[in-house]
Here is the input.
Amino acid sequence: MAHVSKLAIRGIRSFDDKQISVIEFFSPVTVIVGHNGSGKTTIIECLKYATTGDQPPNTRGGAFVHDPKIANEKEVKAQVKLRFFAANGARMVVVRNLSVSVSKNGTLKMKTLESILAASDENTDRIGKRGVISTKCAELDAEIPHLLGVSKAVLENVIFCHQEDSYWPLSEPAALKKKFDDIFEATKYTKALDNIKALRKERMADLKAETERLQSLLREKEHADKLKTRIGEMNTLIASLTSEYEQLRAAYDQQVRSNQHLNETGSKFREIYMKVDQLNQRKEQYKEELNLARENLQEITGTDEELNERVRTYDTHIMRQKQRRTVEEGRQQDTEDELAEARSEHVRLVNVQGQLLAEEQAQVQRIADREELIRDIASRHHIKGFESSQLERDQVIQFISTLNDAKRRQNVETDKLQSTLQTRVTSAERDVDAARLLTSRLADLNADIEEKRRRLERAREDIRNASHEEKIAEKNTKGRSLDLRRDELNAELRTLSLQADSRAKLDLHRAQVRAKETEIKTTLEVCNPKFRKLVGVDARAETMEQELDRLSLEKEREQSELETQAATASKNLQAAQTSLASLRAQAKAKQDDIKSLDRRLQAGLKDGEYDGTVNDAIDAANKEIGVRNEDLGKSAGSHDVYKRLLQTGKSQKCCPLCVRGMNPQELDKFEKTVTEAMKKSTPEAIKNLQLELQDWEVELKRLQELAVLAASKNKLETVELPSIQKELSAKEAEIPGLTSEADEASAQLSEVTRDLKEIAAMQQHAASVSKAQKDIARLKQEITALENDLLASGTAKTADEVQAELDKVSADLRTNEREKQTLLADRDRQNTALRTLETELHRLELEESECRNQLRDKDELERRIAEMKTEITTSNARLKELDKLIAEAQVPIEKLDREHKELERELNAKISQAQKTSQELNMSADKLESMNKAIERYVKHGQARRLKEVTQQIEEQEKKVQDLALALEKVRTTIGEIDKEIGEAGATMANLRENLRVHRLMREMASTQAELDAIDMEEAAKAKRIWTEKWNVEKQKETDLQTNYSHIGGELSSYKSQLQTLENDARDFKNIHRKYRDQLVKVKLSDMANNDLEKYAKALDNAIMKYHTLKMQEVNDTMRHLWNKTYQGTGEDIVRRHSDPAENSVVMTKDQVEMDMRGRCSAGQKMLASIIIRLALADSFGQNCGILALDEPTNALDTENIDALAASLVDIINERRNHANFQLIIITHDENFLRRLGQSNVMEYFWRVVRDSRQKSIIERHRFG
Here is the structure.
């Protein structure tokens, strides 16, 4: 069993900080005696601080440490050192250090210094080499209670309970419950129980979510199974369609090759027809172009070479003209700039000239005005010598000086007169002000008298209207009613404390209902937008799940229909796309054929070195053949003819054909010409012509073969390819519609699928809402039952509601008290003001009384007045004589007064005249000075000379402007001529080009007509009939095959697309069976774990209740024994604490009735009950620690109870003195109590705490007796 050995104190409270005070604790009892304030309780405080680390109440800021101000130190260091034996028998030492310093502003600042917990010397080998266990305060606070074998709560509230906290067993229910929970160490178990319940609640919520997820996975698993079945069916259908598609495609390819061969056989006649059509079209085109060209054509004579030369050189000529125009424009711009600059300068000079002329005229006018002003000023102010009509500059300066002197003299005279008048005016104003002050003073006195009367009446009226007494009585009544209500609520709160368990359940159920309702509201707010979008109405908790189930079935049916529509649309789109691809392939093949034929045609033309088309080449070959045939015809037999003609001509010296005579020169020329013709008709020449004719015939045959290729190419370009492109365009026009239809169906399907997913998600929320509603209904039933139970016992309010109402009543009571105090203060203030006014009124009444006394003397005064009247009559006669004398003396006085007023009027007139004269002089001088300055400035700046210069410059600028205007007009004329030529250049050039184009069109039209004449159309018509009979039938076969295989290809592509979609959907449900199995296992395990948690919570709750009940029975038995043995009063038989944890109170039994001791027992009963409860708790919870400290246990006890307490303590000591570690520490100031303990032979020594001469606490040991 743990016990304490010694305690050393330094610098704590009144203990000296320079030396250590040591106290040793005896077994079984240690008694500490001392007067009040000597420092006894400090020992208990040090024991508590050493073991728990908690300082006494109300010691924040350093009050626990010796005051540095008393010690005359800036810093005081304190120490508490305790040696004790742990529960395991080990001897331990704990040292705690503190310091308190004085800051600059005079406040105390406390610090906790390093603390030590160590084993004593003989135990260091078992603990460790150093013997120190810890130096951290937090570790010490946790380790020491463990070493003592009790909890910190037992140390604080039972073993070392502070004197200020000794009545805690009778405190409020909430505080008392917390104390007992800490002592019973039930907090950690209740926390564990709360954690288990919270964990189970959280896991139940998780289980609910996991169950919903399990249902979702089940639906997904079923959907995945459906997808798997559909994928298998789709694969079978695709395999059968693929086989059929390949067979039709092979037949179609064979038919295409056959039709291509047939088309090649009929290409010859098509080429001929195409060639004829091309030639006719070309001829008509040439003819139309020629007619159009001749409509607006001006024909120009000359050959093409001459016209081309003119076209080639015309651009160069126009370019030179444009360059010349650019040069002329530059000259024009320069001339215009110079002209504008000259005109601007001319305008500026004219403006300057106008200004100078105006200034000249103004100067003349200013000089005339100045002379007029000087003459006027001289005449008005009598200045002589300036009457002449022409004044020189020196005369003007002299006049200005004379005028300034007169102005100064006049100003001096005016100031003198004004000073005299001002002195008189000031004296008169002082007399008037004095009279006004007397009048104002008299008015103020009258106003003060009236104001005092009004204030007195108003104060009385305010007091009458305030009704202070009625309001104060009303507040007192309200305060008494609030006190009664507060007592009722306190009683109701005490009653509710007995029903805490039911109240707690009621609060918990209500909180759960609110939480469930909040959960439902939140879920509805979250889901309502989507719900309204899908269903069309707002979500309601009662019908949400049913609406979603109905909507889910509708959406699933809609999904099936849309899947069928999407498959059909996709099938049609695939067929159209396949047909489109086939047509594109055919178009590409035709284009490739056209390109191949074109390459062959270009190669054939290139071999013959032809520049134009095949038809042009054939025309050229035909022309060459015709020329050769003609030459051969001419050459056959012409040799002999030429020979005879030559002989005849030479012999007759004349032309054989026209018989015209020839001179020798003509004869030589004739002979030369005929000889050359004979050379051409020789056999060698004829043979060469025949060879050339054969070559050209071979070339013509080759060109005709090329013409067949050209006809085939033309047919492909004009007939077959446009037909395919037309079909292709039709198919391409169908594709957007089919694509749109397929996309729309797919979009609708996606939307429905998305809606189904959202519905599935909301179904989970709807399930949670439905479950929450069921929970709310169940909780409301339980709440109704609890409320009925509580109403049967008194009230259905909760403790929080009653406490809130109690707080409100207390606040109203405080407010009422404040208002009452305000009314009392207001009443006192108004009464004080009334008394002050009444005092003033009394003073005035005294003055009135004095006036009344003076009225009583009136009779005496009237008598005296009658006597005086006689004297007045005598005096009146004397006054008449004196009045005559005064009247004679008054005449001179009135005369003097009239003279004074006349002089004053004259003086004012002189002052006015002087001021007027002074003002006129000043104005005249200022005006003259201004005029003179302007005249002098004009002369100084030389404006007359400048006017002449400007006039000369204006004449020069006018001449320059005229010259520039003539040059500008000349340049503009040149530019106009050039612009006319350039403007007509386009028309001339176009006319030249049109003449060249007409010549070319005429040549090409003649060539085309020759080609048409050379073509044989009968053979081509026969070949066309044969080809037409076969082509349509074979082509229809090809089209039918293409349509069939395209349709099947479209279906196949659609099914493949659907298969891909299904496979993609199936991938979304990958591993769904494993997920479902894992989720099922997880839900089952979670459900089992939650059931186990519920069992654990119930078992722990029952164990806590059982432990609490057993310990309370033990404590109550000890309390009953000690109370019956100790208490010497009557009536109160038993004191005990309720064994039910919900009943947080100490009760006593009186006349077989249990009553709460709090508020009903005396101070002595409270002290004795508190000591007994602590003894009982120490007996039950302190088996490992035999220490118990009682601080002033005899407070508020009478003599009988003190004796009984001493006897009880002696019995306890005697019972336990055989336990070597039992220690009872008693602190008291009662010497009789000490004597009774000493007489019982339970102690040999005791300690006395006293103050020395320095008022420091010291501890002394004394032997009893």
Notes: Residues 123-130, 431-439 have pLDDT under 50 and may be disordered.
